[in-house]
Design brief:
Rossmann fold, Alpha-Beta Plaits, alpha/beta, globular, seven-stranded mixed beta sheet, 8 helices, four-stranded antiparallel beta sheet, about 325 residues
């Protein structure tokens, strides 16, 4: 891994200020075999088990070769580069991933969402009654009687423009009832619990393993007129330490964290409660469903958008 780390300034691996304005972007590559879908699945699995906060897979043509499949994965800057490099090296030594190479790694800095982005993130209608809007579009006329959900696009995951977030919102919208309690795991921008509260839920418990996202969630709460008194927002790992029972659980996170949480989900759901899972690809569906079926839950509804898949589950009584 020494050659891999030479791309960095030697100070990059040293802790600096507490709040960092960047994240690590790591690109992996593989020469596709006969069955390209298997290679895509391997890359998706690497992103999931390494704890990437987001990822995308793309193909790049290279003259005179078969070309390469690339995985671009994003990691929190709270992880030091030496630790990240060591972890990735361990994963790629597994036989299933031995053909995957680390292509490059670099810092991606948070964008300054100033006037040059005024036309970015146009209002987006979701479901039957929601419209997700950046705050600079607040004065735009809203079609019909849709409820605006204001989200400031920043570094946290969940602006509403990603397929997995739209899936989660569409599964959430029709099941929120007045006074409901919602638990939002991996809250990111807070878009899911904020939407639930605006739809009538009475209280939210929101957790994210990355403490740097919490200020963004608080900012979005303020944009939507949500009082801090109706949300218990804090750093946390999945459902660890959560004692409350919930009407709705939402988790727009990756495959492996979703699977890791499954044994605890049925225990926090109230009777007739719902668990909404998103952040997984269509390829990963079978893996997740096989574990879900043995965890005291059954799928009540599922949605697909592009390569992404999510579902709404209830407690099984069979």
């Amino acid at each position: 891994m020494s050659d891999y780390l030479t791309e960095y300034d030697k100070n990059a691996a040293k802790p600096k200020e507490e709040k960092r304005d960047y994240w690590w972007t790591v690109e992996f590559s593989i020469v596709p075999g006969i069955n390209g879908s298997e290679d895509e699945e391997r890359l998706s699995t690497v992103a999931a088990i390494s704890g990437a906060r987001g990822s995308e897979i793309f193909f790049e043509e290279i003259p005179g070769t078969k070309g390469k499949l690339f995985l671009k994965a994003e990691y929190n800057s709270s992880v030091e580069i030496d630790e990240l490099a060591y972890m990735l090296d361990e994963i790629l030594h597994e036989p299933d991933f031995s053909k995957i190479q680390l292509a490059r790694c670099y810092k991606t800095y948070n964008r300054a969402w100033d006037t040059q982005h005024i036309e970015a993130f146009p209002p987006l209608n979701i479901g039957k009654s929601l419209v997700v809007m950046a705050p600079w579009h607040e004065t735009k006329e809203i079609q019909g009687d849709r409820m605006p959900i204001y989200i400031f696009p920043a570094s946290a995951f969940g602006t509403g423009y990603h397929e997995s977030t739209r899936i989660a919102l569409e599964l959430l919208e029709p099941v929120v009832k007045f006074g409901d309690v919602i638990i939002d795991v991996g809250t990111g921008t807070g878009i899911l619990f904020i939407t639930a509260l605006k739809l009538g839920a009475g209280h939210a418990i929101a957790r994210d393993i990355d403490p740097s996202t919490l200020d963004e969630a608080r900012r979005n709460m303020a944009l939507n007129g949500i009082s801090p008194n109706v949300c218990d927002l804090s750093e946390g790992d999945l459902l660890k330490g959560v004692k409350e029972k919930t009407n709705i659980l939402t988790a727009n996170i990756l495959l492996m964290p979703n699977i890791a949480m499954l044994p605890d989900v049925a225990g926090v759901l109230k009777p007739k409660g719902y668990a909404i899972f998103s952040g997984m690809t269509v390829v990963e569906k079978a893996t997740f469903v096989s574990v879900l079926n043995s965890s005291g839950l059954e799928i009540e509804r599922e949605l697909k958008s592009g390569d992404w898949w999510g579902c709404r589950a209830v407690r099984s009584w069979g």
